[in-house]
Specification:
This protein is an all-alpha fold. The chain is built from 6 helices and no strands. Helix 2 packs across helix 4 and helix 4 crosses helix 5.
Length: about 120
């Protein structure tokens, strides 16, 4: 199966208003949640209006959930690397460091085996 790559820069334009994690907010999203919404086929406006699939509670994933989503978007990501990226993305998002969270999302989506990039054992 061939996967179409997702461009983080385009994603940040489609979902321009991430917020810090708030699982009680049914109408917002974080940086990682924007990827989930995109994969669900839900636009930022729809999310902000509280529209989402019935099985989705919100678009504020915890790191473990985001790691799975990162691997869906980039099947080349090993588990350990996906978990590390997910942790950084969620932590930076919750500290309102959205620019850096988007940067790590970009790296995760573009990660390839053998590429000189993020190595979780070095952090």
């Amino acid at each position: 199966m061939q996967f179409k790559s997702i461009d983080a820069s385009s994603l940040s334009k489609l979902y321009p208003n991430p917020k810090p994690s708030d699982p009680t907010d049914r109408g917002g999203y974080c940086v990682g949640g924007s990827l989930m919404a995109y994969l669900d086929g839900v636009t930022a406006v729809m999310v902000e209006l509280g529209q989402k699939p019935n099985w989705r509670e919100h678009y504020y994933p915890v790191a473990a959930e985001l790691a799975v989503t990162l691997q869906q978007a980039n099947p080349a990501l090993p588990d350990a690397v996906a978990k590390r990226y997910a942790a950084f993305i969620t932590q930076l998002n919750d500290r309102k460091r959205f620019h850096f969270a988007w940067g790590y999302l970009k790296e995760a989506l573009e990660w390839k085996e053998g590429k000189d990039s993020f190595n979780p054992s070095l952090v």
